[in-house]
């Protein structure tokens, strides 16, 4: 493994506003091998924009610039929209927050998964059926033949998100970007969905970028963590070392989370004076 | 004194029953949590108490008075609600001032100017926000407005429907501190719905674990902190919470 | 001075309700003025309104003054748009016609829009039988072609401009009721409506104070876009003799009279026709611009 899977150097995402350009992501750099990277931050930290900019999914008038943005040696910034379409899905996939908005309501689940597969390769019909069934089984859907015939509104949120994961992973991409994949789900279902992602990523040797606001969740499912605040990476550490984070923002976030055996009378609050008056 | 008492409450939406025989007694000044997964009926109970889910049998009593099925003005003075989504619970075309004065106008309460300013101060909102529209505020500020609105009529009971689950953790900490302080200062009774057990541990005295429309267990928060919940399902919920907080 | 007024208007932290409202109006006007078509539309309508107000000063002749020696003159220095078959100055008649058009448009908007708004909001908010009955009535009106219904009404009420206004108003409220109902349904179950109900607000207060303000922007857009149709319907009624009666200088009636000479004296029918087209376009442009600015679905930021 000579070249890393993803190289990001000095990434910047800019949106023009009437009061001048605003950088929502500023000089973010990291490299990713076939490992699990967590990006944590609060709303407005630029974590989702970072994920989207890798797929060049930033909508106009936003612009992406970087000294280097390369996936498996391919310079993503130099790719045309058409070339990007060949990469999206086939080699880099993205799982979004809410399955309700990401699934087509008038197609059955089986059809949608098959379509995700056929967009990128030609296969005989029987094999497609088998692959869809195998994929649904691998996201732990017990009765794949029945579920394949259902429409998105007929399944629960957790099932919908598992279907999304099946759709995203059936073309066997090298990199999966999961943007808050479980925030819309119940806690017990969350664990299940994350376990599935974790298992598939490990088994297929993929890279994973897991974007979330939940520090604890990220630290238990990733190898390495980037903490972002107002567009910048403020802390980078091994997941196991999160407890020993040094940056005051990270420490503030960790302290602000209530614990199950809470004894504090008041939770410590981040000092927002730097941006509270904006 | 018992602030809020539910007795054998069966709530339904049309033909679908949501809860079965829910009974609870919450003392004045107590902070009580309803926990469970989505579909357990915990939010529906709040709605029925508030008057937004009128199809129920059994009884709902607040400070000794039975509640009617609809929304009545007397009950509004006694019990108010804070919603989950700070983006959806404020009228997009009304300034903060208009949102906060409205309950006073409805109930014919005077000295609106002073009252609005006092409540804004007590929830920690700067005066400069008073004539802004909701879209000019952050999520945390909106939730403060929603809490302020609920406090305008000086109710004794506050129903909290996942009041912090849509917020960032640092903002959640601010709102939780605020709720704790308000409860102490105004001797409020809280009934909170949440799926977040650590939040319960911080803010509440007792909790009821719900599953499929029934109460599985009612316990003290001390038991939660020590991991001493009795029922298997409650312990399962705790374990999931604990692994997340690893 | 102008800079301080502007700063006051765009202040992020207004200090009174008035300032907050004016600030919002200022931002909407600003967004509208960045849309060239909307500016053109607004300008046309402004010109129409000014023309109607100052008609006596703008017109070169009396609109009803006949001069049979000056019949059917081509446009020229004395008669900018020529004269009609009774020797009346067409320019002056078109100018005075602006008043009639404006009155028709304004009256229809005042009669039909609030009626539709309230009926739709009430139906949507209460649902159930209220909804079924009110929307049933609405559907009866919607099931008939507008012009035919207006024709039938005017034929029954008798020709004349007042009856034309009533007829057009009666045919246009159902569309507004449908929109208001649809908008109400999307907001009815929102948490901010639930919150105000929990404060003990009466249904009346919720509808008038909280639901209707959310329907108004789409209603303003729709009414503006409909203005063109209203003008055309009024002109159509005038054309077949059921609207404004002679000698009133109503544009549709003027076209009807000019029809007989369209080949030899084209200007008699064409000049009022131009007026109709320009004013209709003006309303369409403005309506489109307003939709871009006010439509809550396009991610409103005002």
Automatic annotation (TrEMBL), chain A:
SUPFAM superfamilies: P-loop containing nucleoside triphosphate hydrolases. One of its GO terms (cellular component) is plasma membrane. InterPro entries: AAA+_ATPase, ABC_Ni/Peptide_Import, ABC_transporter-like_ATP-bd, P-loop_NTPase. It is found in: Cell inner membrane. Residues 6-255 form the ABC transporter domain. SMART domains: AAA (SM00382). It comes from the Bacteria. Keywords: ATP-binding, Cell membrane, Membrane, Nucleotide-binding, Transport. One of its GO terms (molecular function) is ATP hydrolysis activity. Signal peptide: none annotated. It is a peripheral membrane protein. GO terms for biological process: transmembrane transport. Belongs to the ABC transporter superfamily. This is ABC transporter ATP-binding protein. It comes from Mesorhizobium zhangyense. The lineage of its organism: Bacteria, Pseudomonadati, Pseudomonadota, Alphaproteobacteria, Hyphomicrobiales.
TrEMBL record, chain B:
GO terms for molecular function: ATP binding; ATP hydrolysis activity. It comes from the Bacteria. Keywords: ATP-binding, Nucleotide-binding, Transport. One of its GO terms (biological process) is transmembrane transport. Belongs to the ABC transporter superfamily. This is ABC transporter ATP-binding protein. Residues 4-237 form the ABC transporter domain. It holds the Pfam family ABC_tran.
Automatic annotation (TrEMBL), chain C:
The chain crosses the membrane at residues 37-59, 100-126, 147-172, 192-215, 227-246, 266-287. Residues 98-287 form the ABC transmembrane type-1 domain. It holds the Pfam family OppC_N. The keyword ATP-binding does not apply. Keywords: Cell membrane, Membrane, Peptide transport, Protein transport, Transmembrane, Transmembrane helix, Transport. It is found in: Cell membrane. One of its GO terms (biological process) is transmembrane transport. The keyword Membrane applies. GO terms for cellular component: plasma membrane. PANTHER family: D,D-DIPEPTIDE TRANSPORT SYSTEM PERMEASE PROTEIN DDPC-RELATED (PTHR43386:SF1), OLIGOPEPTIDE TRANSPORT SYSTEM PERMEASE PROTEIN APPC (PTHR43386). Belongs to the binding-protein-dependent transport system permease family. This is ABC transporter permease. It comes from Mesorhizobium zhangyense. The lineage of its organism: Bacteria, Pseudomonadati, Pseudomonadota, Alphaproteobacteria, Hyphomicrobiales.
